[in-house]
Structures are given as C-alpha cells and as structure tokens.
Design goal:
Blueprint lengths: L4 H25 L8 E4 L2 E6 L10 H7 L5 E4 L6 E2 L2 E3 L4 E4 L6 E3 L7 E3 L5 E3 L2 E3 L9 E3 L5 E3 L2 E3 L4 E6 L5 E3 L2 E3 L4 E6 L5 E3 L2 E3 L4 E6 L5 E3 L2 E3 L3 E5 L7 E3 L2 E3 L3 E6 L5 E3 L2 E4 L3 E6 L5 E3 L2 E2 L4 E6 L10 E3 L4
C-alpha cells in the first residue's frame, strides 16, 4: 500500500518534532552532550587540559579563560609540567590527575596560582617555583574555597598566602621546603586548616595575624623556625590535635588572646614547646609538652587574674 504524500509529510513533521524534543531534553539534562574536550554535568561543564582528546586545551589558563562559573577543569599529567602562572577569577574546580605528577611550575616569575574569586577548589597538583619576595605557590583573597591534597613544595617563597579570606578549607596538603613560610593567613576568619604536613620551611610553618575563629587541627608541623605562630591581634582560634616537633618555637602566641590550645603534642626537641609572649586569656589544656628544651615559656606574663592564661591537665 502506498501512503499519500500529505500523510507522509505530516508523519515526517511529527517525527522531526519528537526528535527535537529528545535532543533538547537530553542536552539540558547533561546526559549525552559531550566531546573530547567538553562535557556537560549538573554543575556545569568539564573542560580538559593535556591528554589526547582532539579538542583538549594545552594550557591551564586557556581553559580557565574559557570556563564559566561552576565549571570543572581536569588537568592530565601526561603534558606535565605546565609552565604557567595562572589566575583563577571564576568559581571553578581545578583538579589534577595525580598530585605527584601533575605539576604547575611558575618559573620564578610571580605567583604560581593566584585566586581572585570565591568558591574555588584546587586539588591534586604539585605547585612549585614562584618568584622571591611576596609571591607564593598559591596566593589569594577568596571565600568558601577549598585547597586540598596538593604538594606545595620546592622553591616557592611562600607556600599558601591568603589575605581577607574567610570560610575556606586548607586540608591534606604537603607544604614543604619553601624558602620563607608554609601557610600565612592575614585578616582571615572562620577557616579550617587541617590534616596538612608542614615541614622544612625556613622561617614559619603556619602563621596568622589579625585572624579569628580559625581551626588549626591535626597537622604535622616540623623543622620550621616557628611551627605554629599565632600572631598579633588573633583571638578565639582553636588549636587541637597537632603534632609539633623539631621546631625552634613549637606553638607561639604573640600579643594574642582568648585562644584555645587543646590536646596538641609538642613532644620532641622544640626549643620552646609552647611560648606565650604578651598574650593573655588563652586556654592551654590537656597538651603533651615533653622533651623540649623549655616545655612552657612565658614572657610578659600577666599575673592579674583578669588577664592571665589558663593551664590545666598538661603533661609537662
């Protein structure tokens, strides 16, 4: 039986409409729209750098410039090292394939990674070779960002430097052998610094100024001049469960007040286990402070009961 042309035309139109609707639905839901360099997911696009995809980016900064807020950039390690100084000015996730082999090398030309946006995640990279002076492996002013599982090592002047940055997480990083300091927070509140290994930085392991309500917990801090340094105008910070050893100053408070130091282990060959300099109303409770040259040291210690420090249950 032969169908009439009019009926056939109507059937083709209906099929075209159905096909269009299927494409629209699957594209908007992120199910099938993808190619070598770009894939939609519920939180935005995933872009790729390096690797063998025909449309993959060759530079991380090019992918960042192309990305939109909410996108993810995945960086393969087969094109590593990436000799770049990148600026992240969008709310994106930047993820390396392997923290030991996906390398961003700043060539001593400034910050290796600079963050100017909020809600930025950076993980699984080795970040090295920033320039001298005020530059850092990661430097930024950002809120609600996560820096996790990176190696920030070798010839950075500083490892991580954050200023005016709040509600961030710095966790699971190895911050090692930087030429000045490991982690610096300046006017940074409500951050979590946990589970990091901070070792062999020439001056400071971790230092903060004018910063409040931060949690510094579960870090290993060793072989720095100052292990954990709570500097001027810092209050209401909590230090707990850190292992601090082989530093000149294990945990140091300088002109700071109202902080809590609980269940830390300043246990071996620090010159000063805990040092309190011109600081008051701090709580030092249930810490292990043994086998240091001076387990507890006070300078400018206030005897006035309204400005004294509270020590209880410490092993000294």
């Amino acid at each position: 039986m032969v169908k009439c042309p009019a009926l056939l035309k109507k059937m083709l139109i209906v099929q075209s409409i159905i096909l269009f609707l299927i494409i629209s639905i699957t594209s908007s839901s992120g199910i099938i729209l993808q190619n070598d360099s770009l894939k939609i997911n519920q939180n935005g696009f995933t872009l790729y750098v390096g690797g063998s995809g025909s449309g993959n980016f060759t530079k991380i900064q090019d992918a960042i410039d192309f990305a939109k807020n909410g996108d993810t950039i995945f960086v393969f390690d087969d094109s590593s090292p990436y000799y770049e100084n990148i600026i992240i000015d969008k709310s994106i996730s930047l993820i390396g394939e392997n923290r030991h082999s996906t390398i961003i090398d700043g060539m001593e030309l400034g910050n290796v990674v600079e963050i100017t946006a909020n809600n930025v995640d950076i993980s699984e990279f080795t970040i090295c070779n920033c320039s001298r002076g005020s530059s850092a492996g990661i430097r930024g002013s950002t809120n609600y960002s996560i820096l996790s599982n990176n190696n920030i090592v070798s010839n950075n002047w500083s490892g991580i430097v954050l200023k005016y940055s709040h509600f961030n997480k710095i966790t699971g990083n190895i911050i090692k052998s930087n030429r000045w300091l490991g982690v610096y927070l300046g006017t940074c509140n409500n951050n979590i610094i946990s589970g990091n290994t901070i070792i062999s930085n020439i001056n400071e392991g971790f230092i903060q100024y004018n910063s409040h309500n931060n949690i510094i917990s579960g870090n290993i801090v060793s072989k720095n001049e100052y292990g954990i340094n709570i500097g001027k105008y810092c209050k209401d910070n909590t230090l707990s469960g850190n292992i601090v050893l082989f530093n000149e100053y294990g945990i140091r408070f300088y002109e700071s007040y109202g902080n809590n130091t609980i269940r830390n282990n300043c246990i071996r060959f620090n010159m000063y286990g805990i040092s309190m300099q011109y600081s008051y109303l701090n709580r030092i409770v249930n810490n292990n402070l043994v086998r240091n040259i001076f387990n507890v040291y006070f300078e400018g210690y206030y005897l006035d009961e309204n400005r004294t420090n509270y020590l209880h249950g410490n092993l000294i």
